[in-house]
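User: Fold this; C-alpha cells only.

Assistant: Input:
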Amino acid sequence: MSIKVGIIGCGSIAKLRHAPEYKANPYVDKIVFFDRNLERAEELAHMFGGSVANSVEELLTDPTIEIISDCSSNEFHHIFSAKALQSGKHVLCEKPISLTIEHATEVVEAQKKSGKKLMVDHNQRFTRAHQKAKEIIENEELGKVLTFRTTFGHAGPEHWGVNKTNSTWFFKKNRSALGVAGDLGIHKIDLVHYLLGDEIEQVSAFQGALDKVDEHGDPIKVSDNIVCSLKTKRGRIGTASFSWTYYGEEDNSTIIYCERGILKIYHRDEYQIEVITKEGERVNYQLESIQTNDNQTNSGVIDAFIECVRLDKNPLVSGDDALSSLKVILGILEAAETSRVVTI
C-alpha cells in the first residue's frame, strides 16, 4: 500500500517533523507541498523529493492524495482541516485544533460527517516515558493520584520558527492569539488529561508578557509566561507553568504525587521516569530522551497516523480530545484576564 500525502504550510514544523517523518515511513511514496510562499514549498519539495501544489484547492481536489497534514498557522487550522475532511481526506492537524471553541467544533463536526480520520498533533502522548507513566498510574502501582505539577518552557519560538527573528507569527495576537498557552501550554493540558484519565474542570492563573518584544522592540501582545492552578473532575489538584523565557535550558517535566509515592517524568536527562516510593525506594527507567527544539528525534506521530489510516484504527488524539484541551486553555486565559476562578 502506497500513500500520497499533502502538506499545507511549509514552516519549521513541516520541515523538521512532518516531512522527514513521512519521508521515512515505508508506506508513503509521495509528498506534495503547498505554502503561500512558493519558495518555501519548493525548498521542501527539493529536500524531500516531493512536488509542489499551487493552491490548497489543488491539494484537496487531487483524488490520489489520501492524507493532509495541516501545518498552517493557528488561525487557519479550522479552515484547512475542515475543508480537507469535507474533501474526503484524512487529516493530521497541528495543535491547537483552532483558536475558538466554535471553530474547533466545526472541525470535529466535519470529521464526524466525513467518517475520515482526524488526529491532532498533541505529540506528548506518543513518548515512551509518558505511555509508561500512564500504565503505572492506571495500574495504581503508587495508589491513587492526589496532586501534580507540570511545566513546559524554552527560550521562545523566535529561536525555533522558520525565520528565526522576533517577527515570528507566534508573537502576533491576530495569528497565534493564545501566546505561550497555545504553543506549549496546550501540550501539557492534553498530557494531564491523558495521564490521569481525567479532565480539568476549574482553573485560576496569572500571565504576563515579561520579556519578549516584537521586531519593533515593543512588548508582545500575547503572554510569554503563564502560571496556573488546576482542579480536575475527579478532585485532583495541581499546578502548571508555561514559558518562552527559560533561557538556560528547556524544561518539559511533569511530577505526579500519589498515595504511595512520586512519579517524576523527564525530570533528569539520565532517567526519563523516576519512581520514588513512600519508603524511599527508587526505580529509574531509561526509555528515550524527549524531543526538544535542539534534539529533533522521530516523534512517532506520523507513523501512528499512517497506521490509523492503513489499519482503520482510532487516533490516539481525537478531535474531541483536542477540543477538550482547547477549552481548558481558553479558560486559563480568561482566568488570568479576569483574576477569577473559571469553571470549564
